[in-house]
Design goal:
The complex is a heterodimer of chains A (154) and B (194).
Chain A: H1 7-45, H2 55-73, H3 97-104, H4 108-118, H5 124-131, H6 135-153
Helix pairs in contact in A: 1-2, 1-3, 3-6, 4-5, 4-6, 5-6
Chain B: H1 13-25, E1 31-38, E2 41-48, E3 51-56, H2 62-72, E4 77-79, H3 85-95, H4 113-123, E5 131-132, H5 133-139, H6 146-154, E6 167-168, H7 181-192
Helix pairs in contact in B: 4-6, 5-6
The chains are: A mainly alpha (154), B alpha/beta (194).
Chain lengths: 154, 194
């Protein structure tokens, strides 16, 4: 078995990041429930985790799964996450709450593109793969999404 | 909002509190820990659903202690300040001289064989009394295992509650104490008060 750190250290180090990912993916209101579901699922599975190398990536992957559950439950298009990268480089400022609210209000494809780019730090090729479209289309979704965000936030 | 800057936001405290409650309700809290103030400094208490399993003295490294518990018991180790209220209350009463016997449940899983018997023997030494390492070895079933009786004390996972400070050398010397000899002396002094 891998040497796993006390689960509390995962909360201390990554709770803010997971919450920010979820705010982006499901909005501020849904984020609280999805946060609970994410960490409870993680806690359940934790003793059997084989690789302690990328705990944040593991948590973010679970968070994306819970975000999809959330969208399914509400009959909305899920955010595709087929290609969540193994080592996300991510830590948005939760003070950017308003930004994430606006992200959550974007049309599904734009929302997914923006979330995957900025929350999971995926390159365009992988966003395209996750969304099942061409890199050019992914770039366009991202571009449209950001344009709309700029307008919203202006 | 950029993809590359690393910023640490504040922890979502309320959500974490709720998570802790749900984890406990679902039986996922294998090891709960909390800190408690004492006249000697901050103590770290850790319990399992069975009872108090570890007490860290002020001179112990909390991070190392928790990592050790994660490896030996379960990595599901969570901070749970309210989850150790009974332990906290009994310890506060003990330091104030109001409590002579601990009633909180103990989880002995970190002790085995001779060490387990010796530590259960330590737990039976009444408040205000002392025994020698030789007494302890004898009561654990091996009179000649004085050195092992010493390590039952020095590596006692639950000091204070399992009062290894009440074990002295046969010649009346203090012996050792994981929390330092000054702490041992002060505890004995506290227990001598009427």
């Amino acid at each position: 078995m891998a040497e796993l750190p006390p689960f509390q250290t995962l909360i201390d180090e990554h709770a803010a990041a997971v919450m920010a990912v979820l705010r982006g993916a499901v909005g501020r209101e849904g984020a609280e429930d999805a946060f609970q579901e994410t960490f409870l699922a993680a806690l359940r599975a934790y003793p059997d985790l084989r690789d302690a190398g990328n705990l944040r990536g593991w948590l973010v992957t679970i968070a994306h799964r819970k975000a999809i559950d959330h969208h399914r439950a509400r009959g909305r298009a899920p955010v595709p996450v087929a290609a969540v990268r193994e080592e996300p480089v991510f830590d948005p400022d939760p003070a950017d709450g308003a930004v994430w609210e606006a992200v959550a209000a974007l049309p599904p494809k734009q929302r997914a593109a923006v979330t995957l780019r900025f929350a999971s730090d995926l390159p365009h090729e992988e966003i395209a793969e996750a969304l099942g479209c061409s890199p050019a289309a992914a770039r366009r979704s991202l571009h449209e999404g950001l344009k709309r965000l700029r307008k919203e936030m202006a | 909002m950029t993809a590359t800057t690393e910023k640490k936001g504040p922890r979502p405290e309320r959500s974490i509190g709720k998570l802790r409650e749900r984890a406990a309700a679902e039986g996922l809290l294998d090891v709960a820990y909390a800190t408690v103030d004492s006249p000697f400094g901050t103590l770290l208490l850790a319990r399992t659903p069975r009872g108090l399993v570890r007490l860290g003295l002020p001179n112990e490294d909390a991070e190392e202690l928790l990592a050790d518990l994660a490896g030996r018991i379960s990595p599901r180790v969570l901070e749970a300040p309210a989850g150790l209220d009974e332990e906290r209350r009994e310890l506060e009463d003990y330091f104030a001289g109001r409590r002579h016997d601990f009633e909180l449940p103990i989880d002995w899983q970190l002790s085995h064989g001779f060490l387990l018997r010796a530590r259960q023997g330590i737990a039976a030494i009444p408040y205000g009394e002392t025994r020698t390492y030789t007494d302890l070895a004898r009561s654990a079933g091996n009179e000649r295992a004085v050195r092992a009786a010493g390590s039952a004390c020095s590596r006692n996972p639950i000091p204070l509650v399992v009062p290894c400070h009440r074990v002295l050398r046969s010649d009346g010397g203090l012996g050792g104490y994981a929390g330092g000899l000054e702490m041992k002396e002060k505890l004995l002094e506290l227990e001598r008060k009427p």
